From TrEMBL:
InterPro entries: Surf1/Shy1 (IPR002994), Surf1/Surf4 (IPR045214). GO terms for cellular component: plasma membrane. Its main location: membrane. It comes from Streptomyces monashensis. Keywords: Cell membrane, Membrane, Transmembrane, Transmembrane helix. It is a multi-pass membrane protein. Belongs to the SURF1 family. This is SURF1-like protein. It is found in: Cell membrane; Membrane. The chain crosses the membrane at residues 218-238.
Length: 267
């Protein structure tokens, strides 16, 4: 066991402790990536299921004051009513599919029973000063039927967007049905709808939500666990190399200490 005494040196004690600590750390990181994979897969399945579900009237899923749930989000809904363009607003700092900054157009949609549905009609560019109310293409006039994706009220916690106060008239940062109910003095259905039909070129309608890259998290999970398994093998390889290096050094030192034999003198 004398050849392993070097493991008690400060350098090797530190290396061994670091190796021991790395193994559970990498295993935990693998489990974290597994959790992210399962979470993203569940979210993708939920979104796909909602998008492919049969359209239903919006009032089957939402009522005034209702909080849109995870299973209701992205459900395709229909509604019949009239756009109230006189009281529409724009949502600042929104981007389109090309990452251009502009506005989302939020128009109250008065249903046949008098309730109001908030409809995000899509994106328009922010041409000119953002302090002025932009020119917005008009929606269909009169009674019409729309389809769209049901969305939950926006919050700073969920979106990361700060709800700035003191904005120009008819400009907002977040879409919130409770605040809009107070502004409009009407019974506003909870959440809002991203319009998908009838199709329009302007405003530019919002594209379907993309899928999250769950397979990437699965690959990271396997990677971390392979790293954890490789640590003891790497440590043992270093130990064996150190033993070989020390044995070679000992042989070389012994060779230097051995006196060379003197050749016999010629007669």
């Amino acid at each position: 066991m004398r050849r392993y005494r070097f493991l008690l040196s400060v350098q090797w004690v530190i290396l061994t402790l670091v190796s021991i600590a790395l193994i559970p750390t990498m295993i935990r990181l693998g489990f974290w990536q597994q959790h992210r994979y399962e979470e993203r897969t569940a979210r993708n399945n939920l979104v796909s299921s909602a998008l492919h579900a049969e359209p239903v009237p919006v009032e089957r899923l939402s009522t005034p004051g209702h909080t849109v749930t995870r299973t209701e989000r992205y459900r395709t809904v229909t509604a019949t009513g009239t756009f109230d363009t006189a009281r529409e607003e724009v949502v600042r700092r929104r981007t389109n599919s090309d990452d251009e900054v502009g506005f989302h157009v939020l128009t109250p949609f008065v249903l046949t029973d008098g309730k109001v549905l908030l409809v995000n009609r899509g994106w328009i560019p922010a041409n000119g000063a953002q302090t002025a109310f932009p020119r917005i293409p008009a929606p269909p006039a009169g009674r019409t039927t729309i389809t769209g994706r049901l969305m939950a009220d926006e919050t700073t916690a969920a979106s990361g967007i700060k709800n700035i106060q003191g904005l120009p008239d008819r400009q907002i940062m977040l879409i919130n049905s409770a605040q809009e109910a107070h502004r409009l003095g009407a019974r506003v259905l909870g959440g809002y709808v991203e319009q998908t039909g009838p199709q329009t070129d302007s405003p530019e309608q919002i594209s379907d939500p993309g899928t999250e890259d769950a397979p990437l998290n699965y690959a990271y999970m396997i990677q971390w666990w392979l790293f954890a398994a490789a640590v003891p093998f790497a440590w043992w390889s270093l130990v064996r190399r150190e033993i070989r290096d020390r044995a070679s050094a000992a042989v070389a030192e012994a060779a230097q200490d051995t006196p060379e034999e003197t050749a016999p003198a010629a007669v």
